Amino acid sequence: MKKAGILNRHLSGALAELGHGDGVLVCDAGMPIPDGPRVVDIAFRAGVPSFAEVVDGLLAELVVEGATAAAEVRDANPAAAALLDGHFPGLALVPHEELKRLSAGARLVVRTGEARPYANVLLRCGVFF
Fold first, then answer.
1. Is 90 exceeded by the pLDDT of residue 96?
2. Is the pTM of this model over 0.90?
3. How many of the other CB atoms lie within 10 Å of CB of 90?
4. Active site residues per annotation
């Protein structure tokens, strides 16, 4: 058994398969899941695990070269907006409907237990060298 890092075998394996430019949608429990991408649903109950916990955990495992979120997050979920701004200084903001459209091109969807609106981000993988 792994001693550290992400222990969920489905998520750990999916992350190991990602390459440069691949998209990872980290989403709240209410985000429509697109057909196509691999989905790892780690939601346990409302709020568990939180969006912040999942984003922090993924950033410990991934190199991210860009991120996109819904512009609506600024007004509807200031806590998620602050988290995203803190992690992604160049955060791109698009209308929520555009984020849903873009998420269909993600290679992986990680569904959290977050129950606050617009706690979603589309990450673009980078390389470690």
1. yes
2. yes
3. 7
4. 20
